[in-house]
Amino acid sequence: MEIKNRELHRIALTAIIHKDGKYLITKRSPDKKAFPNKWTIPGGGLEVDDYIDIEPTTKAGQWYYAIETALRREIKEEVNLEVDKPKYLLDLTFIRPDGVPVVVLSYYCNYSAGDVELDEDAVEYSWVGVDELDNYDLIDGIADEIREVGEILNN
User: Fold this and answer.
1) How do residues 9-21 score in pLDDT, each as one tens digit?
2) pTM above the 0.90 mark?
3) Within a 10 A sphere around the Cβ of 139, how many other Cβ atoms?
4) For the chain, how big is the Rg over CA atoms in Å?
5) What is the pLDDT of residues 78-131, one digit of tens each?
6) Which residues contact 112 (CB under 8 A, 6 or more apart)?
7) What is the C-alpha separation between 153 and 155, in angstroms, rounded?
8) Cβ neighbour number for residue 126 with a 10 Å cutoff
9) Which of 29, 79, 85, 137 is most enclosed, with most CB atoms within 10 A?
10) pLDDT at 2
11) Is the CB of residue 50 less than 8 Å from the CB of residue 66?
12) Domain extents for the chain?
C-alpha cells in the first residue's frame, strides 16, 4: 500500500458516553463506505474549522482544547447530546484503503444533557450494559474499549 505522506495523519476522535451504567452505541448506515451496518460509538474527525475562526488561547497563536471542541461538536452533530469533560482512554492507528494514515483518539465521558437524535450517518441507537455487548455486531475493538471504561468506572 502506498502511503501518500508519511508525516501527515487524519485525526479521528471517538466518545464512549455512559449514563446510569449503560453505554451509547449507534448503528452505522448501510450506505457508509466503511463498516456499513456495524455498531459503533459517536465520533468523527478533527477539522481546522474547529479552531481556526476562534481567538487563539496563547499569545503565540496556538489553540488549547481543539480536540475536546471537535469531539463535543461531533457528539452534538451525530447524537444531539452534551457530555461532561471527556477523559482520554487510548489511541489507535490504521491506514485507510486510500493510503491515508489515521490516528484515532478514544475518550469516555458522562452523559450531561439532551435526547438522542441521530444524524444521517446512523440508523439506530441503544444504551447497553457491558453484559449486552456481544448481542451487537460492533466494529472490532469497540466492545473491548467499552469494557475497559466499565473497569475504570467500577474502580
Assistant:
1) 999 999 999 999 9
2) yes
3) 16
4) 16
5) 999 999 999 999 999 988 878 889 999 999 999 999 999 999 989 999 999 999
6) 81, 82, 83, 84
7) 6
8) 15
9) 79
10) 82
11) yes
12) 10-154
Domain spanning 10-154, CATH architecture: Alpha-Beta Complex (3.90)
Give percent of the chain above pLDDT 70: 100
Nine-digit cell at 127? Answer: 444504551
| Single-letter residue type at 150 | G
Mean pLDDT for 132-152 is 97
The one-letter code for the residue type at 122 is A
